[in-house]
Specification:
This protein is mainly alpha-helical. Helix content is 38%, strand content 6%. A two-stranded parallel sheet has the order 1-2.
């Protein structure tokens, strides 16, 4: 599916930068992803990881740089999907990806 999208990969941040941003999010393992998204000036950081998406003091600095969102909230708020739309996608299989769901 990623091959069908016009994506530009964000490079991993240097280890020194990761260390310098130790308090960016709750789980240190998530810091490289958060920094890469921020450095790429992404509008959203969509994740199922609550260490990135919880709207509390542990993500305050990250939220000053980028908008982290759970998948469902992103689909609803940013993409304008109804709550029923994701269930239609859940029923799709790999062969269905030959025609993108957004082109239907």
């Amino acid at each position: 599916m990623l091959e069908l999208l016009d994506l530009e990969p964000a490079p991993d941040p240097p280890l020194e930068e990761v260390a310098a941003n130790a308090g960016l999010v709750r789980d240190p393992k998530e810091i490289p992803a958060a920094l890469a998204a921020s450095r790429a000036r992404a509008e959203y950081l969509v994740s199922t990881g609550r260490d990135l998406t919880d709207a509390d003091e542990t993500t305050a600095e990250l939220r000053r740089q980028i908008k982290p969102m759970p998948v469902g909230a992103f689909l609803n708020e940013a993409m304008g999907w109804s709550h029923e739309s994701p269930s239609a996608i859940e029923r799709r299989r790999w062969p269905d990806l030959e025609r993108p769901f957004w082109a239907e």
